[in-house]
Specification:
Chain lengths: 135, 279
C-alpha cells in the first residue's frame, strides 16, 4: 500500500507503474473478449446451422483475416468473422501495449539501460510485423 | 458433418477445460489446446498452433495482471530475458513455416514428455545466493513480498546461461505455439537461482510477449482462423479465471500427477502419429 507522505518516492512510482501495467493487461483482455464474443454471437446467429468449414486441410486465410486493411474493411462493413478476428488481434496486441507502456515508464524513471532493453524487445516485435506486411 | 454451432460449443467447453487444467497445473492453456484440436477434432496442425498461441496470450495476460500488482514479478528480469525469447519466437515461427507438420508433431511430443517430467520437480527458494557482477550491472537483483508482510531481497547469477535457455524457450514457443513456461522456469529457477515464486510469475508475465512476437507472423501467414480462435480464446480465458479461483483452496498435487501421466499418453500419441504421417 502507498502511504500519502511518500507518494512521490521512486518506490511508490514503480508501484504505480506496476499498477498501470496490470490495468492495461486487464482492459486489453476484457475488450478483446467483448469484441470477439459480439462477433461470435452474430456469426453463430447467421451461420450456426451451416456445416463447419474444412479445417482438416490447411488453406491460408484470405486477406480479410490477415491484413490490417482486410480486417478493418470487414469490421466497418459489419462482417461477423472480421469482428471475431479483430478480437483476436486486440488480444495479440495486449502484451505489445504492455511493452510500450513499460518503455514509457522506464523513460520517466530515467533508467536508460532499460529504455534501451525495452526498445529492443518492442523493435523485434514491431519490426517483424512490418517485415511481414511488406513481404 | 456437424454444424458450426455444435463445433463452436464443443470447442468452447474443451477450451474451458484446457484453461482450467492449464491454470491448476501451471502449464498454461496452449499445452492442452493442440492435442484437443488435432487429435480430437482432426484440425490441421497449423490452425492448432495458431489457436494455441492465442490461448497462451489469453492465460498469460489474464493472470499476469494479478501477479504484477502483487509485486512478485521481476519486471526488469522479464524485460531483459524477453530480448532472448522474442528473437527466439520469431526464429521459431519462421522455422514452422517450412517444417513439415509431422516433424513439428514429433518435436511437440518430445517437449510434452520433458514437460511431464519437469512438473514432478519441486521448486527451491535459493536462500543467500551470491549474485554475479553482470546481474548487478543489469539491475536484476530485486525483492519480493513475504507472507509476513516484509520484503525479501534476492540476488541472481549465471545471466548468460539463463539467456541461452530462454532463446531455446522462445524458439519452441514460436514453433509450437506453447508458452514454454516449464523451460522458462528452468532457466530462471535452476540456472539463474531466482526464487521459485518469482520464476513462475515472471515466466507467466513473459509468455504473453513471447507469444505475441510469433502470433503476428502466424496471423499474417493465415494460420489463425477466427472460427477456431474465438471459442478457444473465450473458453481458455474463462477456464483460467475459474482455475485461479479454485487454486486458492485446492490441493493440486494429485491433479498434477494425473495430468503428467495424461500428458505422457498424449505425447506418445503425437509422436506415433507424427512418425506414421497422420498430420
Amino acid at each position: 500500500m502507498v502511504s500519502p507522505e511518500n507518494s512521490d518516492s521512486p518506490a511508490s512510482r514503480s508501484h504505480k507503474m506496476q499498477d498501470l501495467i496490470g490495468h492495461a493487461l486487464r482492459i486489453g483482455v476484457v475488450t478483446a473478449c467483448i469484441v470477439a464474443i459480439a462477433g461470435g454471437i452474430y456469426y453463430l446467429a447467421a451461420h450456426g446451422f451451416e456445416p463447419i468449414p474444412d479445417y482438416r486441410e490447411f488453406h491460408s486465410e484470405s486477406a480479410s483475416f490477415t491484413t490490417a486493411r482486410g480486417i478493418w474493411h470487414g469490421v466497418t462493413h459489419l462482417q461477423a468473422k472480421e469482428w471475431m478476428q479483430l478480437g483476436v488481434v486486440l488480444l495479440i496486441f495486449t502484451p505489445v501495449v504492455r511493452v510500450a507502456l513499460s518503455l514509457v515508464l522506464f523513460l520517466r524513471e530515467r533508467d536508460w539501460l532499460y529504455v534501451a532493453i525495452t526498445a529492443i524487445v518492442l523493435g523485434v516485435i514491431l519490426g517483424n510485423m512490418l517485415e511481414g506486411s511488406l513481404g | 458433418m456437424i454444424s458450426i454451432l455444435a463445433f463452436t460449443l464443443i470447442l468452447l467447453l474443451g477450451a474451458y477445460a484446457a484453461g482450467l487444467l492449464g491454470s491448476l497445473t501451471g502449464l498454461g492453456g496452449g499445452v492442452v489446446v493442440i492435442p484437443l484440436l488435432t487429435l480430437a477434432f482432426g484440425v490441421d496442425f497449423r490452425y492448432a498452433i495458431g489457436a494455441a498461441l492465442v490461448a497462451s496470450i489469453a492465460t498469460s495476460s489474464g493472470s499476469a495482471s494479478a501477479y504484477v500488482r502483487e509485486g512478485i514479478t521481476n519486471v526488469r528480469l522479464g524485460m531483459f530475458l524477453e530480448i532472448a525469447t522474442t528473437i527466439g519466437a520469431v526464429v521459431g515461427a519462421i522455422i514452422a513455416l517450412w517444417m513439415p507438420t509431422n516433424t513439428i508433431a514429433i518435436i511437440y511430443g518430445l517437449v510434452l514428455i520433458f514437460t511431464a517430467v519437469m512438473t514432478q520437480r519441486r521448486g527451491t527458494d535459493h536462500q543467500g545466493v551470491q549474485g554475479s557482477r553482470l546481474a548487478g550491472l543489469l539491475k536484476l537483483h530485486s525483492t519480493f513480498p513475504t507472507r509476513s508482510g516484509g520484503l525479501q531481497r534476492y540476488e541472481l547469477t549465471h545471466v548468460a546461461g539463463g539467456f541461452s535457455i530462454m532463446t531455446v524457450a522462445g524458439v519452441l514457443s514460436g514453433l509450437l505455439g506453447i508458452g514454454s513456461g516449464v523451460l522458462k522456469v528452468l532457466a530462471m529457477d535452476t540456472v539463474m537461482k531466482v526464487p521459485f515464486k518469482v520464476s513462475t510469475t515472471t515466466s507467466n508475465f513473459m509468455i504473453g510477449v513471447t507469444a505475441a512476437a510469433s502470433a503476428v507472423i502466424y496471423l499474417q501467414r493465415g494460420y489463425i482462423d477466427p472460427g477456431i480462435a474465438f471459442p478457444v480464446m473465450v473458453g481458455v480465458l474463462m477456464g483460467a479465471l475459474t482455475g485461479a479461483r479454485l487454486l486458492k483452496r485446492m490441493d493440486v498435487t494429485v491433479l498434477r500427477r494425473i495430468f503428467a501421466i495424461a500428458i505422457l499418453l498424449v505425447a506418445i500419441n503425437m509422436i506415433y502419429n507424427g512418425f506414421t504421417g497422420k498430420f
